[in-house]
Amino acid sequence: MNLLETNKSDYVLVSGFRSKYEQNKFSKLLSYATIYQQDPEWEQGIYEMTKDFAESQVRKLKIPDGWQGCGSYETLKQWFFENCR
Predict the structure, then answer these.
(1) Mean pLDDT of 56-70
(2) What are the tens digits of pLDDT across the range 11-61?
(3) HEC string of the chain?
(4) What do you get for the CA distance between the two ends of the chain, in Å?
(5) CA distances in angstroms from 53 to 34, 67, 81, listed in the order given
(6) Sign (positive or negative) of CA dihedral 17, 19, 20, 22
(7) Which one, 29, 44, 65, 79, has least CB within 10 Å?
């Protein structure tokens, strides 16, 4: 069964998360942080617009500043637990 075939009620919490809501919020942050941390060979205008978009989406999640400096999954997850609960 792939992810698209599962019900949201079937999701298992990853270690450390207190709720599906918290895990979902982190998943969104991880997606935007991954985009933000890219160092692509794109045109400068596209590169800046992409970073701006990622930052604006994270602001909508009400995530405080500081996530931008996390360079790994584990670092971001720990930062999230310390700053977003």
Answers:
(1) 96
(2) 678 889 999 999 999 999 999 999 998 877 889 899 899 999 999 999 999
(3) CCHHHCCHHHCCCCCCCCCHHHHHHHHHHHHHHHHHHCCCCCCHHHHHHHHHHHHHHHHHCCCCCCHHHCCCHHHHHHHHHHHCC
(4) 32
(5) 12, 15, 24
(6) negative
(7) 44
Domain-wise residue ranges, the chain: 37-85
* The total number of residues written for the chain in this structure: 85
Of 69, 68, 60, 63, residue with least CA distance to 81: 63
- Residue 35, number of CB atoms within 10 A of its CB: 15
